[in-house]
Design a protein that fits this description.
heterotrimer; A alpha+beta (356); B alpha+beta (338); C alpha+beta (336); A: 356 residues; alpha+beta; Aminopeptidase; Elongation Factor Tu (Ef-tu), domain 3; 11-stranded mixed β-sheet; 10 helices; 17 strands; C: 336 residues; 2 domains; 9-stranded mixed β-sheet; 9 helices; 18 strands
Chain lengths: 356, 338, 336
């Protein structure tokens, strides 16, 4: 059973990671999400902003619990086609220019087209001219699609989106590496949670919202939280896990369980309930104090309409916003289980329990 | 397809076995003898109707890669490059080491100060993550000295291009294999050399013991015909035919020989270009200065983004290079003197 | 449709561009627009922030057309004893370009911006600039202007071939396009034209207007930058190449179905258009599309050189294309 669960979750995550959906263009990946949630939810629908709502009804249905994980990914966009056929591009979301050289990409034109972000031969870099200590600027990069300007005009237009071409791969110890695990892993967590809820008693309705446009300003969370106006919300996102170059900056570690956030963005009772639920279900967890903006959907949801008591559950992840983001499947599973146990532990009088 | 097979093989300097074994199998039906010399060069001979002159064709089998030099207590792998690699192209790439996967990540953009993004990441700052939780666990899968290779798939791209890794110089190996399938009056010796990327070391040995009358080096060479560079900096240009070397870091090519190739190409209507930069070098450096001196030419297929995880070549350049080599071999000895 | 009949009335653009209306003090421009559009709408109101809302009733989709009427300027913060004024900026003013610019107050008084003696060019900061309105002393100055008054650039409207230069084409040309469309459009849809305030300081008017109107779809009309001048920042948009359909800016990624709707409409009526990927700034649609549960929104942009200078430059062909496309969008069926 346990292995089946891990296997299925891993397959779903790999499927999502291998597909494409830059902020604003989530319609490419949405059908995969909808199809998957149809197996665990009673009702799946979308809004005109592209957000997907999967409803799992509770026994009483008195209150609405919103879960939110975003499906969009960072990417690039064609901004100009130079006369020799190279594509100039701009970034969508936080892209580090240093991760782009020699990267294979897909331009989503009239049909998907493979391209390469070219790099200078090192023989020329070490000599005069370019300085190898400087990061190459995006203005000095071009995407090579092996087509002439004329041929390009037939298939690519200014404004076409570009994604990274990267198949997910497995590392040792159940780790998965790939692109856009931020935050497709969160979507998988919501699915694990809904599946687990089929085995648990829970009073309230749960609506797992797969949000859009998080990477460019939490925009899908803003609109979906307004639409749903939930009584409690948990955002599920990824958080930085320690690596050799983040010493002193990061204390969350891969494989040590989901991180439960606390701070101004988090309702104190929600933080406490999440921690208690983890302890009661014997699920390992880490504590992540965040002093202000969390940079996640939770930040937008908390102030939607008249305000929403909000929590944040994060999956540790290395190398965020590169094409080799790395995650531990066990953390993903544990996040989903923790969420389900948390929801099952909520009292029928939700409002009362959230009093300050 | 042979070029795809060659491109996707793993074989860096000193570890060319997979490439050597594949080439040996490919050429076996077409040559008279096959041997491997003491440093690992694969040598094949093909008799001609005339015993002399003897023509040497060379291409190197090795590619640039990474070598594991340290396993940290946390189980991360530190590395050095085998051959020239700009560390800036390594960030955010998967690699394969002894059958397991690893990734070269980078600190998340969120954790950087804006200024950090202006500075390139240095080799010493990079490491490979294989998912091991400790040195002990990593040791079970990886040994010091193991090589890490790019995992790039060979595919066609755009109109008439191929993308893949290691075109420098698997494209040369491919061309020689195609030439060996044809028959000429001349006696041919093919040397698929080792360790070019770390100092033209295989070629030095091969030239010494083979003592050819004339050597032709087939390479995949620099093309910098990129978006942000002006025409004078391109070195070579894709789609403009084989590039004939005039000068590089270790060889000044004989002008009379070059002129004969140029005339031949013009006469036969084969497009060609010159390699217009003196930086970089190849096996010719050791061959032309071997023993009393060996007349040597280099003819190359232009490759964009050479020495990185993914490079581009154009099919017509490969075809034209094969055609030009054929014409040269046919023109020897009657119309082509050295 | 004959061309002559559809040629816009550029004297109206001149009146709009020369009107006074920095962010927060849009009364002057608002009154001018109200007077022009009164005959063409069923209701005309002003909301609490100062947005001017014109409704044309209909039974179809509810469409909001947003064009901001405010312009950038400077606001007086201090009057010294010699009658010189110190000021702060309103909206995205390029401080380095301010010295020796003329500015004008609502009451018509004109002044010139100059600077203290500077040791080196890098000393040029807002705090070293002052405004001279020709007052002899503090008392005289205070009779003309008050702290908190704003002034705008002067820059007359000039035709230069098919090109037009003027101050405040950002975004009076957007207002002009909307008004020309309002005059011409025949549709079953319900149209809400919002001439918004305070765009230049953060899309504030559009936010409240969209909340109140809650439309099915919104179209903003504004100016955009171009990449067609010597050594410009790379950008595909060119003056004279047609109306720009926005795909991306920092305030919004245009929903693909809106982009599709605008593109197919432009192609159907053979209206010249180009795609716009803008790497700086945003416009009213950025606020509108995040209102309530999300409102599908798009932007028609007029390519403009030298934006936020006293001589912004547009091409009349682009203006006409924008009017034609806006009318076509408002008249056609909408299936999003």
């Amino acid at each position: 059973m346990e292995n089946e669960r891990v296997k299925h979750a891993k397959e779903f995550l790999k499927l999502l990671s291998g597909h494409h959906g830059v902020s604003g263009y989530e319609s490419l990946i949405a059908p995969l999400v909808i199809q998957e949630f149809q197996s665990s939810a009673e009702e799946v629908k979308t809004d005109r902003f592209g957000n997907i709502y999967a409803l799992k009804k509770g026994e009483t249905g008195r209150y609405k619990i919103m879960l939110a994980a975003h499906m969009d990914e960072i990417g690039l966009m064609v901004k100009k086609i130079d006369p020799r056929g190279f594509l100039c591009f701009t970034t969508i979301g936080g892209v580090d220019q240093r991760t782009l050289l020699s990267q294979e990409v897909i331009i989503h034109g009239r049909q998907p087209i493979t391209g390469v972000i070219g790099s200078m031969p090192p023989h020329l870099v070490q000599g005069d001219g370019e300085d190898g200590n400087e990061a190459v600027k995006i203005e000095d990069m071009g995407i090579d699609v092996g087509l002439t300007h004329e041929e390009i005009q037939k298939v690519i237009q200014v404004g076409d989106i570009i994604t990274f071409k990267r198949s997910p791969l497995e590392l040792l110890g159940g780790l998965i590496a790939g692109k856009s695990l931020d935050d497709r892993a969160g979507v998988v967590v919501m699915q694990i949670c809904l599946q687990e809820l089929h085995r648990l008693y829970h009073a309230h309705d749960v609506i797992a919202v797969t949000t859009t446009q998080e990477e460019i300003g939490l925009r899908g969370a803003l609109t979906s939280a307004y639409t749903l106006n939930p009584d409690l919300a948990i955002a599920i996102d990824v958080t930085h896990a320690a690596t050799p170059d983040t010493m002193g900056q990061v204390s969350i570690e891969l494989g040590k369980g989901p991180a439960i956030a606390l701070g101004p963005n988090i309702h104190p009772r929600v933080y406490e309930s999440l921690s208690e639920a983890a302890q009661n279900a014997r699920i390992p967890f880490q504590i992540e104090p965040i002093a202000g903006m969390t940079g996640t959907d939770a930040w937008a949801i908390q102030v939607a309409q008249a305000g929403v008591p909000t929590g944040l559950l994060s999956i540790p992840l290395r190398y965020m916003h590169t094409s080799v983001e790395t995650i531990d499947m066990q953390d993903v599973i544990n996040s989903g289980l923790l969420l389900a146990h948390f929801i099952a532990s909520l009292p029928e009088d939700l409002e009362g329990s959230l009093c300050y | 397809m042979l070029l795809k097979k060659l491109s996707e093989l793993k074989g860096t300097s000193g570890a060319e076995k997979a490439v050597r074994d594949t080439l040996r199998e490919e050429i076996a039906p077409w040559v008279d003898s096959i041997s491997v010399d003491k440093i690992g060069n694969l040598i094949a001979t093909k008799k001609g109707s005339e015993p002399a002159p003897e023509i040497l064709l060379t291409a190197h089998m090795d590619e640039v890669a990474l070598m594991i030099t340290e396993i940290t207590p946390d189980g991360f792998l530190k590395f050095r490059s085998v051959g020239l690699i700009d560390p800036r192209i390594l960030v955010s790439k998967p690699v394969q080491i002894s059958g397991i996967n690893g990734v070269i990540g980078a600190k998340a953009i969120h954790l950087q100060k804006p200024k950090e993004r202006q500075h390139a990441l240095k080799l010493e700052q990079l490491y490979i993550d294989i998912g091991a939780k400790s040195q002990e666990e990593a040791n079970k899968h990886v040994k010091l000295g193991d090589y890490a290779y790019f995992m790039t798939k060979f595919e066609s791209l755009g109109s008439g291009f191929f993308k893949g890794k290691a075109f420098d110089d698997r494209v040369g190996c491919y061309i020689i294999t195609e030439i060996l399938k044809k028959n000429f009056n001349l006696a041919l010796v093919a040397a698929f050399t080792v360790q070019e990327e770390v100092g033209l070391r295989g070629a030095k040995v091969a030239a010494y013991h083979l003592k050819p009358d004339f050597a032709l080096v087939l390479e995949g060479t620099i093309s910098a015909d990129m978006a942000h560079l002006e025409e004078e900096d391109w070195v070579t240009e894709l789609g403009k035919g084989p590039a004939i070397s005039i000068q590089d870091r270790t060889t000044l090519y004989n002008p009379q020989l070059i002129r004969q190739v140029v005339n031949l190409a013009k006469e036969k209507g084969i497009p060609f270009q010159f390699r217009r930069d003196s930086r970089g070098d190849n096996d010719a450096g050791k061959i032309h200065s071997s023993r009393e001196g060996i007349p040597t030419l280099s003819i190359s297929v232009p490759c964009r983004y050479i020495h990185s995880s993914v490079s581009l070549v154009k099919q017509e350049d490969i075809d034209h290079t094969i055609q030009l080599v054929e014409e040269i071999l046919q023109a020897i000895p009657d119309h082509f003197k050295f | 449709m004959s061309n002559a009949q559809n040629l816009p009335d550029y004297t109206l653009l001149e009146r709009l561009s020369q009107a006074y209306g920095p962010s927060g003090a849009e009364k002057g421009i608002s009154e001018k627009i109200a007077a022009v559009i009164q005959p063409y709408c069923d209701s005309l109101t002003q909301d609490k922030l100062g947005n001017l809302i014109a409704i044309r009733k209909g039974s179809g989709k509810k469409i909001m057309i947003a064009t901001h009427m405010d312009e950038i300027g400077v606001m007086i913060t201090h009057i010294d004893e010699n009658g010189f004024l110190r000021f702060t900026t309103v909206g995205g003013v390029h401080v380095a370009e301010l010295p020796h610019r003329r500015v004008q107050f609502q009451n018509g008084r004109t002044g010139i911006i100059s600077m203290e003696k500077l040791d080196k060019p890098s000393d040029l900061k807002l705090s070293r600039l002052y405004l001279d309105i020709g007052a002899a002393n503090q008392e005289e100055a205070e009779q003309i202007v008050q702290i908190g008054d704003s002034a705008v650039f002067t820059g007359e409207l000039v035709h230069s071939g098919s090109r037009i230069l003027s101050k405040a084409l950002d975004n009076r040309v957007g207002c002009f396009v909307a008004i020309e469309a309002l005059k011409r459009v025949q549709t079953e849809h319900e149209l809400s034209f919002a001439f918004t305030v305070q765009e230049e300081v953060g899309l504030r008017g559009a936010q409240t207007a969209a909340f109140a109107l809650d439309p099915d779809v919104a179209i903003a009309v504004d100016v955009t930058l171009t990449g067609d001048t010597p050594k410009a920042h790379p950008m595909e948009v060119k003056l004279g190449n047609g109306v720009a359909i926005k795909v991306f800016d920092h305030s919004m990624i245009t929903p693909p179905q809106i982009k599709q709707w605008m593109t197919t409409t432009a192609e159907k009526y053979k209206i010249p258009y180009q795609f716009e990927v803008l790497e700086f700034g945003g416009t009213d649609s950025g606020a509108i599309h995040l209102t309530k549960g999300g409102i599908p929104a798009g932007v028609l942009s007029i390519p403009t050189r030298y934006v936020h200078s006293p001589s912004e430059m547009i091409d009349s062909k682009d203006v006409e294309a924008a009017v034609n496309l806006l009318v076509a969008l408002l008249e056609g069926p909408i299936n999003l």
